[in-house]
Amino acid sequence: MRFAILGSVEAVAPGSGAPGLAPRHRAVLAYLLLHAGVAISTDRLIDAMWGPLPPDSARAQIQTTVAAIRRMLRASGADRMLATRPAGYVITPEPGQLDLDEFTSLIAQAPADSDDPGDAADRIRAALALWRGEPLADITAHYVQSARARLNGQLLTAVERLAELELARGRHDELIDELSVHAAANPLRERLCCQLMLALHRAGRQTDALDVARTFRATLAEQQGLDPGHAFGKLEQDILRDAPDLRPPVTASAKPQGINFLPYDVPDFTGREGELDGLIRLWSGNNGGVVTISAIDGMAGVGKTTFAVHAGHRLADHFPDGQLFIDLQAHTAGQAPLDAGAALEILLGQLGVPTQQIPASVADRAALWRSELSGRRVLAVLDNALGSDQVRQLLPGSSRALILITSRRRLTDLDGAHALSLDVLPAADALELFTAIVGERAAAEPLAVLDVLQLCGFLPLAVRIAAARLHHRPRWTVAYLADRLRDQRRRLSELATSERGVAAAFTLSYEQLTPDQQRMFRLLGLQPGRDVSPEAASALADLAPEQAEALLEDLLDAHVLTQHQLGRYTFHDLLREHALATAAAQEPPGAQREALGRLFHHYLHTACAAIDHLYPEGRNRRPRIPVPDTQASPPRDEAEAINWLDSERANLMASAQYASEHDWLPHTSQLAATLHRYLLGHAHQADALALGGLALRAAHRSGDTAAEARTLIDLGQVHFWWHGAYEQAAEHYRHALDLARGIGDQGVAAGALQALGTVSRRRREYDQAHDHCAQSLALFRELGDRGGEARCLTDLGIVHERRGRYEDAHEHHRQALHAYRETGSRIGETVVLNNIGLLCQREGRYDEARHHHHQALELSRRFDFPGDEAESLNALAEAARSMGDLARAAAEHDTALILAREFSYRPEQARAHDGLAHVHRDLGRIDLAHDHARQALDLYTTLAVPEADEIRTFLTGLPPTANEPEPHGVPTGAPAMNAT
Question: Using the 8-state DSSP alphabet, how is residue 55 labeled?
């Protein structure tokens, strides 16, 4: 995880598994990062965000924002970074995770009186390279202006310290452009102006130096009515008389250029600035006499050699005694890896040691190598290393040398080496590389270029080959190339030339693996999801979990797998295709299907165990899955269950899609039945509809009428609860009821009747709702289904409440709450508590109502039920308004609206707008009342519910605003209770 505030505010996790943050969330995150390690109270955050006039919902917005930041950190595997202490929230990034910390650390290591001014200047330049523009550039909050001023002050202080060092080294010419930019942006910065004047004077530009002085003097007088200080006046006079003490310092003449064996540095090298700056900081951070070793690793084709060679050329001036290069041939087609003796002979020869003076034994050659390097400033690139053993004897002893080692494997056994893992190029850098090779045609088809880059997986080798092919085929368009690459069967063959290819590079990596590692690599290629856990890999390969994890770690070290999240392993897209092709060529079809069968069995069984923790009341209605032979530990509690389901959701969906397309129909149906409650309750509506559609087709194809009916009910619930598409839901329920009665399935019939009752209740057809629920209750009781019984009791309680039969309503809710707690259903308990609260509101017992709603709110937040959280907040707001606490009502409705919008929960959006319209009317904020009422009316009309008429009447009764005509119609009606 890396955080950046010296520019736009960013929280970047490895890969793209982490969710993005809204601007307000980034503003809070930036404030916490500015005070990293310090506990920040909610009141302080409110003051920082809004100053002296915060909105009524400020505290709720801060809580929602912190929850969003926690979700982002949890998705990135960094959930412990943000803690809640008695004094407030505290964020503690690790070293190297926050650009501001890195900046201040580098500046602290570069004092103006450093014994090595060049080293100090390098550190400051590395620190300045961390700035990406105006700090806190894309956020707005009360604190931003003052914080930005403080940060810019730190930047200018660093620039002035750098100028002081460089002027002392006689590097005035290199400073002029840089200082001119900063002086123009900060025209009243006297020290900066003086340094620019001195640099210009030393460069022989006395007139320009004096022009700068006159401009500064005039600006200072005009804007502040002041004269410059004594030091400025003295410098100005010294420039006028060309004082001798202003002349550049005398520097030692440069040493003759040493030997250079580095290969050609490609002129279109693109990107990697962060990695290059880090490498420079690494080298400059070591003291004299210390060898700096950087082990550069990465997957095949990621550009390790190109990067090392470019870095070598860029740093060459710092190593006057020579730049050496050797290919150790670990992954060179048709060549065996060089042994240490042969490598030392080549390196000693590059240093100029005559062949006859090179000893015969490896130990003597290594000793001579260390002796030759002692006291020299040499850069050596040891390219294409097989592992730590191959390079260990090639490392110097005491020397001011920089050794760059490239390898496809992580050199974890190389003590003292600093690891630098190269990833694929960011999109902007890949675009720049492609455009540099292709030329104008890239600019003419920008969308097609992005398609090509994505199909190349932003892998530098693939991008270079694709661009080169296009460059040498003038009749091809970029779109045509993209179409060729979309065909997965020939994508890897398209990314090849006569001399190099992506698949060939991957094959060399594969051949270096052990047989067990190769088998795991092939089987992982079969996996239809995006990543894999050790437990899933153990099922796929039929191994114990600890054996599977060891192989995954081996493949990670070999850079054929990557890891964007702790405990999750994934392929680069092109490597995934190569693994699948290798599996197709080397794994028998029967073995492939058996491996996938084990994986799907693992997914289904573990999902079933997780859902049983979260929704135990429905255990008897879900399929029961036998324990697999290679069973890993299932989730042990509700928290582990949610974490597992959230981590594996994309893979579960992919497995269902694959099973549907490859005649694994029972897996699709069983997985849909198992996951439905989780997907519905945790706001994954799109996945719920997609999985339900797959299950419905699978049920049709297999002739499983009972599964078809159950799936229709599940799909109807998504339409009912989240979209408010009540007629569409009712159609599904009626169809399911007909199917269930046709096959005599009483359980499914009971579920369909109960669901039809909810539709009737929502439409205020209470007689019909009561009939449906009563029939359903009788069936569930006959079947001994306590979960179904509890749902019917809840619905009947609501019907009685709406009819004014409060005692009957209380009794039904009491029985439902008992049944839910008996079965351990947290979601059911949440629903009933909210309904008891609404019943208390009807009876005028508002304190008691808020108590029940608060209990529901705590449960919904604890178990991550966002829809129920929005319902609880709206209900709390309605009770607050009835108690006359309009400020609290507005804040709670606002928070509910934010949450409902985030999860596209249309019924609760409408309810929140309705409530806000009434609250703002009561507060005399007629414009806001009109605005919220119109939005509520639009949503209610779309939902086709009776509340549309009520809010229309409310609108008619509102006083006109400045832009509204005089209303017609009836007086304001009472606010509606919209909870279902």
Answer: -
| Greatest extent of the chain over all pairs of C-alpha atoms, in Å | 110
Beta bridge partners, 568, equal 565
**What Cα–Cα distance (Å) separates residue 860 from each residue in 131, 335, 662?**
42, 62, 38
Give the DSSP H/E element, type plus range, for residue 896.
helix 886-902
The 3-class secondary structure across 502-561, one letter per residue, is HHHHHHHHHHCCCHHHHHHHHHHHHCCCCCECHHHHHHHHCCCHHHHHHHHHHHHHCCCC
Query: How far apart are the C-alpha atoms of 644 and 602, rounded to whole Å?
Result: 13
Tell me if 386 sits within 8 A of 406, measured CB to CB: no
DSSP string, 910-935: HHHHHHHHHHHHHTT-HHHHHHHHHH
Supply the pLDDT for residue 14: 62
**Rg, C-alpha atoms of the chain:** 35
3-state secondary structure of 977: coil
Closest CA to 405 of 322, 344, 469, 327: 327
Q: State the Cα angle at 361 between 355 and 365, rounded to 5°.
A: 55
Partnered with residue 295 across adjacent β-strands are 405, 419
Burial class (CB in 10 A: 0-12, 13-18, 19+), 290: middle
Distance CA 922, CA 912 (A): 15
How many other C-beta atoms can be found within 10 angstroms of the C-beta atom of residue 360?
8
pLDDT in tens, 605-664: 999 999 999 888 878 788 888 888 776 788 988 889 989 999 999 999 999 999 999 988
**Contact predicate 349/358, CB 8 Å:** yes
Q: How far apart are the first and last CA of the chain?
A: 42
C-beta of residue 562 within 8 angstroms of C-beta of residue 569:
yes
Residues 17, 556: Cα–Cα separation, whole Å? 18
Contact 748, 713 (CB under 8 A): yes
The CB-side HSE value for 663 (13 A sphere, CA atoms) comes to 1
